[in-house]
What we know:
The protein has 288 residues and is of the alpha/beta class. The protein has helices at residues 3-23, 66-80, 98-112, 130-137, 159-167, 192-201, 205-217, 230-243, 250-264, 269-283, and strands spanning 38-42, 47-50, 88-92, 117-122, 143-148, 178-184, 221-225.
Amino acid sequence: MSDSSAAALLAVLTRIADALERQTPPPPPPVDLSAADAFVWHADPDRLEPVPSVNRVDIALLQGVERQRDLLLDNTRRFAAGLPANNALLWGARGMGKSSLVKSVHAAVIAERPGTLALVEIHREDIPSLPRLLALLRGREKRFVLFCDDLSFTTDDTHYKSLKAVLEGGVEGRPDNVLFYATSNRRHLMPRDMIENERSTAINPAEAVEEKVSLSDRFGLWLGFHNCDQPTFFAMVEGYADAFGLTVGRERLHAEAVEWSVTRGSRSGRVAWQFIQDLAGRLGTPLR
């Protein structure tokens, strides 16, 4: 090969190498897991993004979920102390504080044991990347609660198989320093018509339904959240009003809260908080 041909070939190969390098993103810098007590997991490319300040409410302000609060708090405390604990599924009525409770419990535990426990939020669409996240967290001194909000699956969704393997299956199993908390409006993480469809179309209906429903069995702790009655709704708005110094008489507070809930067509912790935000705005009082 002549010198000119070799030079031309080298130039082509250099351009190809440069193009491949541009298409391949550099590896993410190693994450400092001591930088924060909460992170958000992003896939493609994989990275943990620190969350300096978690959007949460104080655990003392959560009304009507005392039993659920105590059970989840005890489970999380044991986990942070290095003791056995269960994956938890918080299911039930919308707006009744499922995700708020997870974040508030995490805050309460790290206040007791600073630096021992991190909350890692993972989006439902990133569930297939869970094995890579676990590989990153495995063996770390810190303990991690993986949190997936509003988890559910549709008819053609196979992500639940990845989650089943992570929770208890697989050769390696779930790392000892990782727990999984999820919230869902559905007890079995899938709509009833999906379960009925599996039962009616499968060759062996019982086995088909068992495969779908068995995902929720991987959660050792089930916490149900139910619709809110009026006394509990009043306790919620009173708690918020007292905590933020909203100077409104109880009779007026109740009357306006009822009117607000009627316009929304429901009573829940979320509706109570939205009412308090409106009331504080009208009173010119910041919520801090």
